[in-house]
Amino acid sequence: MLLPSLLTAATAERPLPAAFEIVTLTILVAILIADLVLAYRRPHVPSTRESALWVSLYVGLALVFALLMLLLVDAEHAGQFIAGWVTEYSLSIDNLFVFVIIMAKFSVPRKYQQEVLMVGIVIALVLRGIFILLGAQLIESFSWIFYIFGAFLVYTAIRQVFENHDDMEDTESGVIRFLRKRIAITDQFDGGKLRTVIDGKRMFTPILVVFIAIGTTDLIFALDSIPAIFGITTDPFLVFTANIFALMGLRQLYFLLGDLIDKLEYLHYGIAFILAFIGVKLVFHALHENELPFINGGHGVEWAPEISTWTSLAVIVSSMAVATIASLIKLRVDRARARS
To answer: Residue 6: what pLDDT?
Structure first.
């Protein structure tokens, strides 16, 4: 029973002190709490320079953490973290497309978008933490779960190609319509407050609806992202830290990219390719370690290749780079045509 013991084996082979994990998670949580407090105490629209500095800081922290993993553990685990972080960062950028739609639809004042995004990030972290625990338990108990994870990611990749983000947001509006019929919600914002008083009656502001829309979005993307990173590593610590580092700075990235993010036309194709690639990788891995009796008599399929962590990292980075460059080229061509 090799596959069910993957988590135990990975932990046993990794001479990483428990204190290192505890200290790392404590520091990351402290940074997120400080970021949340800062967003609420100082609501403003960050400048491009400010956003760039914060994004650079969080990216730098992730690279420093990878370097520590390399020095304290080995290159394989450092590579798994980098590949997992880049994958989750790519999928988190996809979140931003929907966040842009939600902010525009509900006309959230830009001054208060920071705190709304921060709450969305906290919701995403909680949901992903729950799914990581569930996913780790499923992998440990049921080896065939990789078949399901792989098929789901391939399906998600196909949906990513043919379904736009406006369609996804429209599916969420049913929940919001249900909410409006049963709860008193005003159409007016009162700063960043969740509740306000209008004509002596306490009512919820549209902030509540925005939180629910973002929370629903986070749930959908958590269902995609967690199986994806389990295709890179099955170590819960690496999975969770990769998710935290991917979500840190997402708020500042939203303001850094601004209107550009909605114009990166081919980015979702790159993300779809990454999901499909990891889905196929998961199926190959499941075949290689197969225990299902109706597949090859319950034995591993020898021809199924094992794709290395570094190969995965190269494919992920290349996919995002090609999609981003192609989008920017098309944007420049479109602007040139508009001027002529």
So the answer is: 37
